[in-house]
Amino acid sequence: MKFRISREAFTNELGKLQGVVSQRSTLAILSNTLLEVEGDRLKLDATDLDISVSTSCACEVEQSGKVTLQAKGLYDIVNNLEDEFVTIQVEDNYWARLDAGSVSCRIVGTHPDDFPQILDTSDIKMYPIATDVLLDMIDKTLFSVSTDDARPNITGAFFQFTENNSLLMVSTDGHRLSKIETKPENFDASSVPEALKKGIIVPRKGLVELKRNVSSKDQELSFGVKQNNIIFKQGPMSLSIRLIDGGFPDLEKVMPKDSESKAFIAKDAFVSALKFVSLFSSPKTNNVRLTLGVLDEDGETIRPELELYATDPDRGEGRKIVPVQYSGPTVKAGYNYKYIQDVLGVLDGDEVSLEIIDTLSPTLIRDVAMEEAIYIVMPMRV
Predict the structure, then answer these.
(1) Cα–Cα distances in Å, from 364 out to 45, 320, 361, 379?
(2) Are 3 and 41 in contact (CB under 8 A)?
(3) 160-216: per-residue pLDDT in tens?
(4) Contacts of 32 (CB under 8 A, 6+ apart)
């Protein structure tokens, strides 16, 4: 096996594998990448057995063949080369000799048959989705995916093709919930897999790798489902993610109904007030109290304001008032301010709506300019 390749192209493709290759697995082969050259292409595979990445790029092939090399070590070597082109030749013992200008080195390799079999995705039905749409769905739900391995069914985002012919993505960690829905264009709804209609759970790491490897500059992105995997393809890159088994929480039981206590707030003012009042929040609980509809001194007049308040024995207390559009009763509840902060951080519009029902019921936060996205934050004891 011998080939010559652009150092820049080689570095870019190796970079796509770095989040998948396992450095801590008891199977040493999982820290390797499978390199295969044939025709005029170099193909690279990496897997941790749950997530697999395959990609390729053009190269000059002098002799076809396969080998596995340590993925991170190879990336570090190639990334630090100065010459424009790299030549790699595999020896009979599967060591690889690398030459680039004045640089020459030998890298330990292993037999390609030791590498795990990658899922064949050449025969599955793929569905197009705009890259920016999918990345936006991930951005708006990833932060509330649970990291609690004791509840594996919520350590991923729920992904479903709904009866309304839209794509739904939902995530929750038990304290908050994020939901976004979009209607994809040029989508063949007639042949959607039954698994996608029922809904699948895509693990957190898979979403992170998808976000890392998919280019927002390239609008050509497609996905499909095979066995217990969801596959995404963009250009020469294919990402296969093993789905999480189990049932996702029932949204109908979690989603509160609209209430009278709905206020409209300038997002920047809300963010600024929350940042200030959080300085007085307990570092153990991050507790901040929100009050909608501030009572005047007469105890009867309700002013259309949002009061944010926090107190801690070691820090003191802080309060800030934000003007709002509101005509409902006085309602208040306490929250972990970081949960609200995370929600505000993914909203794109200038105005948000806030619905506080009472001290125990879920609170709804929406981007006024994007009604298809809903966020729920559970109150905590004040």
Answers:
(1) 43, 21, 10, 11
(2) no
(3) 999 888 999 999 999 999 999 998 877 777 788 889 999 999 999 999 999 999 987
(4) 21, 46, 68, 69, 70, 71, 110, 115
Amino acid identity of 382? V
Sign (positive or negative) of CA dihedral 248, 250, 251, 254? negative
Residue 367 to residue 365: CA distance in whole angstroms: 7
Alpha-carbon dihedral of residues 262, 267, 269, 274, nearest 10 degrees? 80
Rounded to whole angstroms, how far apart are CA atoms 60 and 79? Answer: 19
> Are the C-beta atoms of 281 and 288 separated by less than 8 Å?
yes
Instruction: Read off φ and ψ for residue 303, nearest 5 degrees.
Output: -85, 140
Q: List 353's β-bridge partners, or say none.
A: 264, 366
CB 239 within 8 A of CB 247: no
pTM here?
0.92
Tell me which residue of 227, 157, 165, 158 sits closest to 190, measured CA to CA: 165
* Mean pLDDT across the chain: 93
